[in-house]
Amino acid sequence: MLPADLREKLERTIETADHPRELAVDVMMALQEHYGHLSDEAVAEAAQLLDMSEVEIDELATFYTFIYREPVGRYVIHVCDSLICWMDGYEKLRDHLARKLNIAMGGTTDDGLFTLLPVCCVGYCDRSPAMLVNRRVHGNLTPEKVDAILDGLRESARSADETSSG
């Protein structure tokens, strides 16, 4: 169930819009941030808030790369598989990540830390191959750079977990 303060904030935002449907992606992102993904419950809540059908919300959600209808890891890694990244080593990068994380493309690590997904372009062609981690771009990637990024993310997660539990 959506907390009252978030519901009220979304309702206020929607009330100010000339065409509330234009805020569908913003509402879905806010609900996803709250739930961790756009659950069926969140789809129903978005539909109710925006006076849309659940089917309309689901159609939009499945269109957008950064809306997740299934649970994802704390860090979502989108590996660019555009033509330029492919020419500059996308497959090697993808395979290294899959091996390092012990998951296939589309999978999430057993500890819930990482999800590995393809994305058609991140606009970093001059620094390919590239990937996004929670929508932060990384380019000119090598296996060593990827390992350093993953190690840093693991350390950040450990620090955050220690801070929240201590």
Q: Which SSEs are present, and which pair or pack?
A:
Layout: H1 4-16, H2 24-35, H3 40-50, H4 54-63, E1 75-80, H5 83-87, H6 90-101, E2 114-119, E3 131-133, E4 136-138, H7 143-165
Parallel strand pairs: 1-2
Antiparallel strand pairs: 1-3, 3-4
Q: What report would you give on this structure?
A:
This protein is an alpha+beta fold and 166 residues long. The protein folds into two domains: 4-63; 75-165, Glutaredoxin (3-Layer(aba) Sandwich), CATH 3.40.30. Helix content is 52%, strand content 11%. The protein has helices at residues 4-16, 24-35, 40-50, 54-63, 83-87, 90-101, 143-165, and strands at 75-80, 114-119, 131-133, 136-138. A four-stranded mixed beta sheet has the order 2-1-3-4, covered by helices on one side. The longest helix is centred in the C-terminal third of the chain and has 23 residues, at 143-165. The mean pLDDT is 95.
Number of helices: 7
What is the arithmetic mean of pLDDT? 95
Low-confidence stretches: none
Strand order of the largest sheet: 2-1-3-4
Question: How many strands, what sense, and barrel or not for the largest sheet?
Answer: 4 strands, mixed
Q: Helicity, in percent?
A: 40-55%
Strand tally is 4
Shape assignment: globular
- CATH class of the largest domain, please? Alpha Beta
Beta strand %: 5-15%
Order of helices and strands: HHHHEHHEEEH
Write down the Rg.
18 Å
Count of individual domains: 2
